[in-house]
Amino acid sequence: MGFFDKGHEKESPIGNLRAHIGTFMYFVKVGKSKFKHKGKVGEIFADMDNTQYLFQQATSGTMYDMKKKLDYTLWDAATHKYTEDIQKLKDELLKAVDEGEESGEFAEEKKEKEIEAEKEEEEKKADAEEEPGSWKAHIKGQMEEAEEKARKEAGEKEKEMETPAVETEEESLTEEDCRELWRIIQGLEREYKEMNSIADDWFSVHGKKTGCMAALAAMTLLPLGAVYGLYHLL
Fold this sequence. Notes:
The chain is mostly helical and 234 residues long. 74% of the residues lie in helices and 0% in strands. The longest helix is centred in the middle third of the chain and has 32 residues, at 72-103. It is rod-shaped and about 95 Å long.
């Protein structure tokens, strides 16, 4: 797990906090992988993963004891950002569910049952046509169906040639995607609640002290990426 080590969970409140952050970021990475090509949802997870250094810097400890420091300004910035990110994921999920209900995209099981029923009906019809004395009607019926199918395919092909195809690089959320996204959001919120509870207890005892890096970030209002780069230069 790297910086976030489950082994520190019982050693100190900060170690416990880091362990929950590690689990939180695990859910983020799962979301980033699963929804990579799913438009806005994939972008949100990628951004959440790219800014995990906020948590790392807020809980980086001191040169004297890595277990005993939580920077309030950076922690506040991190929780503010990830609160917004989780809400964005919820908004995208609700949007996908609403669109799926309207278009009927989430009725896959129903469609499969309907297809199976149609197949069974066709098989029964074919069996009936195979009865003695009906072979002529059977052949004629198949010929008519083949001609009708060819006419439909020709019409569809002509329509496709008239209407330029719209290239879509991103895929819409399926019913399975929505269920998986909801599972990930629940995991994120569970860990997020634990993280904030531990941090609140820490600040109630140790106060809301800030470090030099946090003060610099707050004063300059630099983009987070720039602040991260500056941190490594200092």
